Amino acid sequence: MKANCWMGKRKVEVQNVPDPQILNQRDCIVKITSTAICGSDLHLYNALIPFMEPGDILGHEFMGEVMEVGRGVENLKVGDRVVVPFPIACGSCNACKAELYSCCENSNPNRAIPEKLMGHSIAGIFGYTHMLGGYAGGQAEFARVPFADVGPIKIPNGLTDEQVLFLSDILPTGYMGAEMAEIKPGDVVAVWGCGPVGQFAIASAYLLGAERVYAIDRFPYRLQMAREQCGAITINYEEVDSVVETLTELTGGRGPDACIDAVGMEAHGHGLAYAYDRTKQALKLETDRPIALREAIMACRNGGRVSIIGVYSGFIDKFPMGSLMNRSLTMRTGQCHVQKYMPILLDRIQKGDIDPSFVISHTMKLSDAPKGYEMFLNKVDHCEKVVLKA
C-alpha cells in the first residue's frame, strides 16, 4: 500500500509499504477514504518531538471502511463506515472507565519512555512517535486499528466524509477545550489561535452559551474565518501593543471569564518575550514556546478558567505561577478524550448545529502529502486544513 512516511526534519515521502495485518483479535483493518494533516503533525514535521524514526507512517485523523475484523470485535462488521479516534484506548483500565481515554493505561507498549519524561504514560496515539507506541498512522491506504471494539464510531448514511472526518480529533479537541473552560451562558471567552482547533473551540464556546468570543491570531484569512464562520470578535496580535491590555480594555478592565490556548508549543509573537523563547529553544534550554499560554493566564479575570488544548511536549520557562495561584485561576488541560465526545458531536452534526467541513481549504491526493505539509506549514494559498484522499 501507499503511505506517507516521516523521513527527517521537514521531509516526508509517500512510499510503498507492507499492508497492515490483524495482530490481535480486537483489531480491525480500515480502508481509508479520507485522512487529514493536523497542526500536531507539524510538530513532528519540524522534528520538535523526539522518538520518530525514518519510515514511520504519519497521521492520526482518518476514517474509512472496515475491511477485516478480529474475532474479538463484535460491534463492527466488514463494510461499516467508521471514524477512528486518535487516542488508542483499551476501554477497561481505570482511566478508560473514567472516560479519560487519552490516558489509557494499557495501549502504549513503550510506556517507559514517557514515564521518564512526564512521570506517567498516556495512551498510544496513531502515527505519533515511538514514545507513544510507534503505531502506524492513517495517512495511508489502509490502517490497523487496535481495540477496535472501543475506538471507531459507525457513521450513518447521508453524511459526507468531510462532515464527520474531524470527529477523529480536532472537533472533539475544540469542544473539550470549551467544556474544560466551564463556559456558562453570558460568559466572555478568549481563544488563542485560529487554526482548525481554535475555530472549533470558538464554535463550541458559542454552542455552550458564550456571549462573546475574542479570537487572537496574526493571519488575516484565519481571522476572517473566525469572524464569518464562527462569529468571533478578532484581534490581530501583530497590530496591537499588548494582547493582555487589549483584552482588559475590551472587557471593562476585568478580563475574559475563560481563556483557551489552542496554540501550544510553537507559538509566535513579537518583542522580547518571543526573542527570549526562540533563543532558549534554539539552545535547547526549553522545548516549547509558551507565549500564548502566558498571555492566557495573565489576561484571564480573577477567579477565571484557563483551558489548554494546544500541544506541549516538554518544558517551558517563565511560567507565571504567581498569577495563576494568587488570582484563584483554574487550569485544565489534556489530550482529548475523543471517544467520550464522538457520539455527542455526531449528534450535533446530524442536528445541523455544526458543519465541521468549513475549515477545509484544500483537498489533495495522498500522493500529494509532501506538498500538503509544505503548504500547511508555510500558510500557502490561505491553507487552513488539508484533507487527503487515498
Tell me the layout of helices and strands.
Elements: E1 2-8, E2 11-16, E3 28-37, H1 39-45, E4 56-57, E5 62-69, E6 81-84, E7 87-88, H2 94-97, H3 112-118, E8 124-125, E9 142-145, E10 153-154, H4 161-164, H5 170-180, E11 188-192, H6 196-207, E12 212-217, H7 220-230, E13 233-236, H8 243-250, E14 258-261, H9 272-282, H10 291-299, E15 305-308, H11 321-326, E16 330-333, H12 338-351, E17 362-365, H13 369-378, E18 386-389
Parallel strand pairs: 11-12, 11-14, 12-13, 14-15, 15-16, 17-18
Antiparallel strand pairs: 1-2, 1-4, 3-5, 3-9, 3-18, 5-6, 6-10, 7-8
Helix pairs in contact: 5-6, 5-12, 6-7, 8-10
Can you tell me the residue ranges where pLDDT is under 50 for at least 5 consecutive residues? none
Given helix and strand content, the structural type is alpha/beta
Number of strands: 18
**Average pLDDT score:** 97
Structural overview:
Strand 12, helix 7 and strand 13 (233-236) form a beta-alpha-beta unit. The mean pLDDT is 97. This protein has 390 residues and is of the alpha/beta class. The protein has helices at 39-45, 94-97, 112-118, 161-164, 170-180, 196-207, 220-230, 243-250, 272-282, 291-299, 321-326, 338-351, 369-378, and strands spanning 2-8, 11-16, 28-37, 56-57, 62-69, 81-84, 87-88, 124-125, 142-145, 153-154, 188-192, 212-217, 233-236, 258-261, 305-308, 330-333, 362-365, 386-389. 29% of the residues lie in helices and 21% in strands. The strands form 4 sheets. Strands 3, 5, 6, 9, 10, 17 and 18 form a 7-stranded mixed beta sheet that branches.
